[in-house]
Amino acid sequence: MSSKKNFVLRVDEATYNALEKWASDEFRSVNGQIEWLLDKALKEAGRKPKEKPETKSSAKHK
Predict the structure, then answer these.
(1) Fewer Cβ in 10 A, N or C end of the chain?
(2) Is residue 55 part of a domain?
């Protein structure tokens, strides 16, 4: 599993409320919804980095 970076994101209240409602409708957290949206946008724009295939030696050390 890849590591995740933490950062602060500031959005206006109306945007947050809309994200919160949408996330709830899809049984996700707001954070999960934002991650999903970013992933989808990156894929659609052709900017999603390719994931490196896991080797047998790296799989053993997990």
Answers:
(1) N
(2) no
Which two tokens mark 36?
């999903």
- List phi, psi (to 5°) of 35: -60, -45
Count how many domains the chain has.
1
Taking the alpha carbons of 40, 45, 49, 50 in that order, is the dihedral positive or negative?
Answer: positive
Tell me if 23 is assigned to some domain: yes
Distance in angstroms (rounded) separating the CA atoms of residues 59 and 20: 36
Tell me if 22 is assigned to some domain: yes
CA distance 33 to 26: 8
Q: How many CA atoms lie within 13 A of 57 on its CB side?
A: 0
What average pLDDT score do residues 6-30 get? 97
Instruction: Say if 3 falls within a structural domain.
Output: no
